[in-house]
């Protein structure tokens, strides 16, 4: 009898161990099943971001040259860091970068300020009204950049513009930056506003109510409570604004067809890269310029994050 009891206990213990061993693979299987939802993004990131970066490091080390009179097939020649050195010493690239940097110094803060004001105004109205304005302001951002640029060009055109009664020539050399800046503000205002408005929704309602009970005005609440909560979202949208501005291409590219004497083929770094790659056909040098531009954007991002850290610690 006792022997049977020992056998039963041993059998029960074995079954428990088997069940526990089976339980572990099931959890792993669940985690694996959940991770499959990320596979499309991971595949796209690897093929369209990581792979081009890796390939570009090889492309930049070579040049394609034709022998003799330029007839025959081009041969790939190893040149080491010659393309990188040439890009660093390219005065045209740095001049174009200076143009867009000056443009960014003016346009990014202006866009951020207007977006912050719109987010605060929408946050102060009822939820139903706020929803309507959010959709209305987000529509320009949802419009493809090429389409919106073409629409604005027609609005600026002297023959079709509803503003022609003002007598202002929006394609004049003195008005080109203003015209492109107006398009940029119109396109980026909605996205920035939505991100900032989302950060305002994370403010505990009790803090706002306590401030109102203490007699704080809405303006005081906005500056002392709401604006500090928006610092992280402002940093995020500023970073995207700087990156987008330094890669300025659509607006000057279309304006070039109207005002070629003002906007040259290498007016911005992105236009110069496009010209080198697809007009001149020098993919290797265009890749070097692209890597240099990416490095500049990386440095600008690091500086911005360091500045944000100092603001948060203060």
Automatic annotation (TrEMBL):
Segments forming domain ABC transmembrane type-1: 97-304
GO cellular component: plasma membrane
Taxonomic lineage: Bacteria, Bacillati, Actinomycetota, Actinomycetes, Bifidobacteriales
Database matches in SUPFAM superfamilies: MetI-like
Name of the protein: Sugar ABC transporter permease
Membrane topology of the entry: Multi-pass membrane protein
Annotated source species: Bifidobacterium callitrichos
UniProt-listed GO biological process terms: transmembrane transport
InterPro entries, sorted: ABC_transporter_permease, MetI-like, MetI-like_sf
One Pfam family here: BPD_transp_1
Compartmental location: Cell membrane
Coiled coil: none
Keywords: Cell membrane, Membrane, Transmembrane, Transmembrane helix, Transport
Annotated family: Belongs to the binding-protein-dependent transport system permease family.
Transmembrane intervals: 37-61, 100-121, 133-155, 175-195, 227-249, 285-307
